Amino acid sequence: MATDKALINDSKSQRRVYVPVADIYETEDLYCLKLEMPGATKDSIDITLENNELVIEGKSSLQDNSNRQIRYSEFSNMDYRRSFRIGNDIDSSKVEAKFDDGVLTLLLYKHEAVKPKKISINHAN
Amino acid sequence: MYTYNFFDDIMNLRDFFDDFFSRRTSYEPYREFPYMRIEEEGDKLIITSLMPGIKADDLDIQIIDDSLIISGEKKADYEEKAYLRKERFFGEFKKSIKLPFRINHDNIKADLKDGILTIHLEKSEDSKPRKIEIK
Fold it and tell me: Beta-strand (E) ranges in A37-116?
């Protein structure tokens, strides 16, 4: 797993977030996105689809604990955020999401109109 | 107790520059999968590791002397399909870290939830601080 960091400039505050790594696959019916967000929970993930922009945000359940002294660390407790631009072929009413073992899977179904259709030729008798 | 190490400051400086120029798109070479953290709380040692997409059955944790060895396999969770983006890592991995002190081998708890592995260890009796009475 490799994760980039990004700086988010909100109107409220400036904060650092992790940009989760993602795989995107396409089939005839849908696009499948898989994002690695270890430490996020099912309830802490927000997925919004607006103006052709898909935004995925997740809060990490790892919290700074003042009783614990960090001896060594290769990561920090940061939240996740990543956005994708998507085309017009997505049916925004038909998006499925599930979260297992720290991996978020999003299924974005395509509009019926853009799916490939097989046209059969009728024989004129 | 903290022993001053000149290289810690150098590493801080490097991190500062890395953060400043952190427009890198992919791997951070000095860290290897899985990312780990060691924390100390009294006589306890808590090890946290980020392991997205790994099942408990595919994970093997061993303690040899004062080293913790985590190995396993991250199995690919997709079929061979046309991809638009492929950033995730799959395959076998093995990582060992040296613990700051010896631990009690009888009392080890490990838990894997939401892609986070937590291992609770306890200091062994002979690495706990001992007060010496002057007679």
Answer: 40-50, 53-60, 69-73, 79-85, 90-100, 103-110
Question: Are the beta carbons of A58 and A37 closer than 8 angstroms?
Answer: yes
User: What are the average pLDDT values for consecutive 10-residue runs of chain B, which has 135 residues?
Assistant: 70 74 49 85 91 92 90 82 84 89 87 93 84 88
Coil, strand or helix: which one is B23? coil
Chain A, chain B: beta-carbon pairs less than 8 Å apart: 122
Nearest CA in chain A to B42: A68
B109 has a chain A CB within 8 A of its CB: no
- Tokens for B102, please give them: 């010896």
| A37 contacts B83? CB cut-off 8 A | no
Q: Do A22 and B87 touch (CB under 8 A)?
A: yes
Helix, strand, or coil (residue A113): helix
Task: Kindly report the pTM of this predicted structure.
Answer: 0.77
State ipTM: 0.79
Q: Are A79 and A59 in contact (CB under 8 A)?
A: yes
- The secondary element (H helix, E strand) that includes residue B45 is strand B44-50
Token pair 């977030």 is found at A17
